[in-house]
Specification:
Layout: H1 11-26, H2 30-39, E1 49-55, H3 61-68, E2 76-79, E3 108-109, E4 126-127, H4 149-157, H5 165-175, E5 176-178, E6 196-200, H6 205-216, E7 231-233, E8 236-237, E9 239-240, E10 243-244, H7 247-255, E11 261-264, E12 267-275, E13 279-287, E14 290-302, H8 305-315, E15 318-319, H9 321-326, E16 333-334, E17 346-348, E18 352-354, H10 371-378, E19 391-395, E20 408-413, H11 425-429, H12 433-440, E21 448-455, E22 463-465, E23 476-478, H13 485-492, H14 506-512, H15 515-521, E24 524-525, H16 541-551, E25 552-554, E26 586-588, H17 603-620
Helix pairs in contact: 1-10, 3-7, 3-17, 5-17
Amino acid sequence: MFVNYFTSVPTTVFLGALMPLLRILLSAVVEEAREAERAFSAPENFLEEYDFIVVGSGAGGGVVASRLAEVPSWNVLLLEAGPVPPQDSYIPGLFAFGYMRGNNDWDYVTEPQNNCLKSFVDQRATMPHGKVLGGSTITNGMLYARGNRKDFDYWASLGNAGWDYENCLHYFRKSENYRGSQLGETELYHGRGGPMSVTGSHPGDLSVAFLAAGAEHGFDIIDPSGPVQTGFSKPYFNIGDGIRSSVAYSFIRPAAAWPNLHVLHSATVQKIILDDEKGSKGVIFKHDNVLYKAMASREVIISAGALGSPKLLMLSGIGPEEHLQEHGITTYSSCSGVGQNLQDHMGVYGLVWTINKGSSSSMRQIIAPGAIEQYVLERGGPYAAPIGDIANAWIGVNGEIDNDYPDIQISLSPAPFHLDKGLFVPYIFGLDKALYMRHYSPLFGEDGFTLVINLLRPKSVGSVTLRSSNPEDLPVIDPQYLSQEDDIYTLLKDAEVAPGLMQKSVLHLIIGNSTTFRQTFGAKLYNNSIPGCEGETFGSDGYWVCYLRHMATSFWHPAGTCKMGPADDPFAVVDQRLRVHGVKGLRVIDASIMPVIVSANPMAASIMIGEKGADLIKQDWGLNVGY
């Protein structure tokens, strides 16, 4: 394995040894990076007033700004707190660099959690959130998955007309440029010719076994963007021609060449300017340590993400009145739902299966002769996709829900949790390093893989609130993980038998009783008890409950904090047209508007929200959008 050649060395030394290889790889994307930097350069002359100001350039805001700029008579200003994307972000095989805390990231951490995270420092979860042009589409794992049709139909049933699956499907297709061959019966669910490239992966030996294990136990092999979500699937990524197809690269970069779109990065918005009669008039932002005002004649659109958008609303006087008063903020609009309804997928990490030495070639590909040369010359090979062998399964485990509404996602990672011997993993996740070393050191040098269980529809709901009235302070993030016992039961339930028995669970069925994994790889679950759970018999109900409370943490998918809903919903922040209740000329367009989090990685759904939100704005200003 790659990092096994660097045993017991400081991270800085490891990086120093790695840099020559990185420089060679980065040379392959120099022209794209230079082109983007030119496109993202600050405008020479700012306007006194713009038609629209968009705050945040991620999956929602970057899409909105580029689509609004399609109207030549509209002047649009896009403000982003972070810098331009770094060169390494273009290379899919280096995606893990985006997980490094503080690297183009807000470095958010949650409040200490009472019910879980016992193996983590201060029982806090790290929550990476992109602080860079393109937002988290620059720093994430590029998995393209939309969610379940019932997610969107449920949104519509809550009083949000136009957000049903059929309407949303139009916008999923509009944004997508699927680059693969014809998909047969699921072809109509994909788009071709949209701004963002999407490609399928080429399964390796582990993912082939994973898909075979699913088929062996009666699950279909599916296209997760098709009509059915339940089943096993190879991953689809937002990658084109060996380059990460981020929102910055796919949407903002082409539009930035137009004279009516001004893009300013490294500009942190601190407050929305509100007027008693006209509503939002503009924003105050800091750039190069100087405060500026930018005025909007039509609308201000907040797209700072599920953690940043509610913070900005509250700093501006829009939020729960008592909370604003606590921080000396004058209430402009009392809106109880701002910052509430925080939902996040929760991942169960650290489950490792060992395999026979040398039985899988997945991770060795990155140091195979010619791998770097193949990327530099052809934009191909292992670095043209996320490194390793990845696959997913979406499975329904709750009997009261039909089989096409999965509760959990299982993700195969070819990089076992012990792979880097503590160089990066504890820091990325916020794990207690001493505990990590105590538990995983017996595995150092062993080949293996990891499976992560992702809770798709958590019932535990938290909040985002202000730490102070100082815009520089990060918000208070309290997800209340595992505060609802139902979430524990869902994570432990069996797909076909009964709740509570992890040793008869989906993971056990797939791996322990799958011919391919047993015979080809000799796969065995690492059965040393996690520190803190030694008093429970390994494999018992009590052990797995203990394990969850120690090792389950954020899957880094916050959503829902500016909930979309009708005016009679006391916790709704925006209406079905994404207009903030009670405030003229102000919308929120990002993952924060989700009434309920989608049953998949939320990037694709957030882009869809941006696409639809842009059309809603155009319609409200008298334009025919053709749909």
